[in-house]
Design brief:
497 residues, alpha+beta, 3-stranded antiparallel β-sheet, 7 strands, globular
């Protein structure tokens, strides 16, 4: 889920950030500074210049929340965050943040300039403020427009959740997270993790995973039990993110569900965790995995009371899900852990510059007797300066190292998976179609025999088998659409050039 540059009169606005993070079982979402229009300026995504008419007394857009400075940032310069009413987070330079803070609807541009001059110790005129409001803040939907139409561009990010629907509204999530927040006290964490270790030793030492799995596979009704427990564990996972967010001092939003590719997935809106320290954000990232462990404790307790072998399989699946969540190459919990460790909101948007920075640079020496020519900057060694866009500029050295290492690992892995996906599509589709017909045939026979539970289990199995194949086709569709858009943008750029 990319910078902040400042000059005397034209600071560059950080592009919007996807809501941080929408936590899901298959996607633990979204944060990142994602460029929607380019890093050299901000205009409407359609290409039409932003509004130029500045209100006489600029005021912040309705529902806008100022989150303050992004602490623990891996960016070289201070970054301030604001969240619109639609949940979109926008990162700003310090100057723009102070202008936005002073735009309360009571001050005109001259009064805002006086206020910013005092706060920033930097001379500003009313004309400077009017320009920045019209050219930077209004196109991003941060300042209300006089005509009542405030643009609200959204960030475009890779591998994000779609078709979102609310399951628990924010007030309900706030009450639940307030109850569970006590579980993040250091003493409680230490005690519960120690108990988890003891519980795992008892569970896997006294019970057979193989026998449990065989029992589940042989009994369709138990498959439904496992699916139900998996859904309950996924929802409890989301409560962990919300509770960790509340414990840190931020306010979690809704818990809902959507589609990640074609997999149904839960999410939790913890956008407000941006206001937390790096430690608070990491706690929020790890809160879901921590609650996976607590869910294992509940399952083990039920196992001790009921001796139901199906619970052993459920415990194994919860552990496997927690391990999977640590994968840092898609938008799971591991991705956000790396992101917050580096202090860089959207790693995917930094991947291209990080990879280009590792390539050998061709240096063009100036022939003797000919003066050096440089577009914008001169160098004493007479070499042409490298293109600033070919480096992950704007990052501190530690953040640059982390982002580069992540990109070098993630890019080939993603590429290999895409190649394998494209090669295996014909085989997978054939096998999936055959398996679906088999399951549906079993469901039909079970229905005729009056075994409705078995029939329902077979239909669920057919759907679960179909989802991966559908996901593969959807990924290929997204890939083809992205390539076509890139080709179209390149042609338009060449035509304008």
């Amino acid at each position: 889920m990319t910078e902040s540059t400042r000059s005397s009169t034209r600071p560059t606005t950080m592009p919007p950030v996807p809501s941080k993070p929408d936590r899901t079982p298959d996607l633990t979402d979204i944060t990142g500074v994602t460029d929607i229009t380019g890093v050299t300026g901000v205009t409407d995504p359609t290409g039409v210049p932003g509004p130029t008419e500045v209100p006489a007394r600029p005021s912040r857009a309705d529902g806008l929340a100022l989150l303050g400075e992004f602490t623990g940032s891996g960016l070289a310069r201070p970054v301030f965050l604001a969240r619109r009413a639609d949940g979109q987070v926008v990162a700003l330079t310090e100057l723009l943040a102070h202008i936005l803070e002073a735009a309360d609807g009571a001050r005109d541009v001259a009064a805002i300039a006086d206020r910013v001059t005092v706060v920033c110790a930097r001379r500003m005129s009313g004309a400077d403020v009017a320009y920045l409001v019209a050219d930077r803040l209004m196109p991003l939907g941060l300042i209300a427009s006089e005509n009542g139409v405030t643009p609200a561009p959204r960030a475009k990010a890779l591998f994000t959740l779609a078709a979102r629907h609310t399951l628990l509204p924010a007030p309900a999530v706030h009450r639940v997270s307030r109850v569970f927040a006590m579980l993040f006290r250091p003493a409680a964490v230490a005690l519960l993790l120690a108990l988890l270790v003891v519980t795992d030793v008892w569970t896997f030492g006294r019970h057979s995973v193989r026998d449990s799995a065989a029992e589940v596979l042989a009994t369709p009704a138990l498959i439904l039990v496992v699916v139900g427990l998996a859904l309950a564990g996924a929802l409890f996972h989301e409560c962990g993110h919300a509770a960790a967010c509340h414990y840190g001092g931020a306010r979690p939003g809704v818990i809902g569900f959507g589609m990640y590719l074609v997999w149904p997935a839960f999410f939790t809106d913890v956008t407000d965790s941006y206001r937390l320290s790096r430690l608070g954000r990491l706690r929020t990232d790890l809160g879901g995995i921590y609650f996976n462990g607590l869910f294992v404790l509940l399952l083990a307790g039920a196992l001790a009371l009921t001796h139901a072998g199906v619970l052993v399989t459920a415990v194994v699946l919860v552990h496997l899900d927690a391990i999977r969540q640590l994968a840092p190459f898609v938008r799971l919990d591991g991705y956000y852990i790396v992101s917050d460790l580096a202090g860089v909101p959207d790693l995917f948007n930094r991947m291209g510059p990080a990879l280009r920075a590792t390539l050998p640079r061709r240096r063009n020496r100036v022939p003797r007797g000919r003066p050096a020519r440089s577009a914008g900057r001169s160098r004493p060694d007479g070499l042409t300066p490298p293109d600033i866009r070919s480096r992950p500029d704007g990052l501190t050295r530690p953040a640059r190292i982390v982002v580069t290492a992540w990109a070098l690992l993630a890019a080939p892995l993603i590429l290999v998976n895409l190649v394998v996906l494209m090669v295996s599509v014909p085989f997978v589709l054939t096998r999936t179609t055959r398996a679906m017909w088999d399951y549906l045939g079993l469901a039909g026979r079970a229905t005729r025999d009056g075994k409705l539970v078995t029939a329902f289990a077979e239909v669920v199995s057919a759907l679960l088998v179909a989802l991966p194949a559908g996901g593969m086709l959807f990924v290929l569709f997204l890939l083809a659409r992205g390539v076509l858009r890139a080709v179209r943008a390149h042609r338009e750029g060449c035509r304008r050039g």
